[in-house]
Design goal:
The chain is of the alpha+beta class and about 450 residues long. The chain has helices at about 5-20, 50-55, 85-90, 95-100, 115-120, 135-150, 165-175, 180-200, 210-220, 285-300, 310-325, 335-340, 430-444, and strands at about 25-30, 35, 40, 60-65, 75-80, 105-110, 125-130, 160-165, 225, 230-235, 255-260, 265, 270, 270-275, 365-370, 370, 380-385, 385-390, 405, 410-415, 420. The chain has a 6-stranded mixed β-sheet, with helices on both faces. It is elongated.
Length: about 450
Amino acid sequence: MTCIPKTEYARRRKALMEQMEPNSIAILPAAPMYIRNRDVEHVYRQDSDFQYLSGFPEPEAVIALIPGREHGEYVLFCRERDPERELWDGLRAGQDGAIRDYGADDAFPIGDIDDILPGLIEGRDRVYYAIGTNEAFDHRLMEWIKTIRAKARQGAQPPSEFVALDHLLHDMRLYKSGNEVKVMQHAAEISARAHIRAMQASRAGLFEYHLEAELDYEFRKGGAKMPAYGSIVAAGRNACILHYRENDAPLKDGDLVLIDAGCEIDCYASDITRTFPVGGRFSPEQKAIYELVLAANEAAFKHIAPGRHWNEAHEATVRVITAGLVELGLLQGEVDQLIASEAYKPFYMHRAGHWLGMDVHDVGDYKIGGEWRVLEPGMAMTVEPGIYIAADNQNVAKKWRGIGVRIEDDVVVTRTGCEILTTGVPKSVAEIEALMAAAREQVA
């Protein structure tokens, strides 16, 4: 299994502490457990920032980073070992495991945090903390600050400044290391196999959830614990709903299926969209729209390289799609004017991509000082142009209505251009039709 080594987590903590002011402390809580219903919990997934700094997979934990602390700069509060609870819920690292397996310099029981953490905060000038991301923990932290302030007459010194920890951390997360790219490549390869499996299984009479089941099988078979986000399996007119969720409609011959799905490995996401015909062959109208979206997808890659700005790839897709819609007769006018007036937006209403990493819509600013961010090696993103012609769009001929196509790939900026991580799943009309024809022959 591809994963991030312990040495990399240590480098990340060191890099963050080097950016912190002297005599400061950074505090970060783990993700809470969420109740699904009554006494049943959702599958636990660690907070991405917490995971980024620690690799520690358990709930009920808090990181404190204290540059220059004599007894160790990385302090981890976590659950104690408890044989009875571990019998029910699984093994815990405990304090020894936090130090031995997760690199903590010092570790304390989470039950002792009210007694210990205020003492670690006291006397620090500055607290780095992401206020507003965990409301319950916000209140606890404010109570600790009040406790310190209440002892001011005895010489206790409360911190004088709070600084947004996520501002520093999220800029770090924007630049992927070689190890991170390997994990993302692994996730992409599993997801590519899942999309191929769904194409091979597709036939009229099935339901969208049958294809979702094929995706889930391949994700789990590949070692992924969960999808990176709720899978979208949208047949026919459902493909024109950008974040379609129901996945319960029948697959009908003559319709397209749009699948937007990816798995997560070691808390790193993949994000792939492919669109294909239920019955294995595109109609002329479907093929025309599909090949236009594919041309936009491929044009975007030429604008992803160091020194290019974030929006260039999107602008390239807008130009290709607008010109293509004019050529097909779905828009009328001069291409530059249509782009300026955003006449393409009823057909292409979203942007061409987003940052990708530990979150499927990953962290990082898209603009700096009001200007689009310049791309640099290690940045990872999606490229996902689409065309959606609503079934009730009376401004186009009936033959076009209800066609929705999106093609999405995962990309990492390299020193010389970009690397596409998702080449393992077919994308051309000929490749898709050949794959699906071969699958039908095997069944027959």
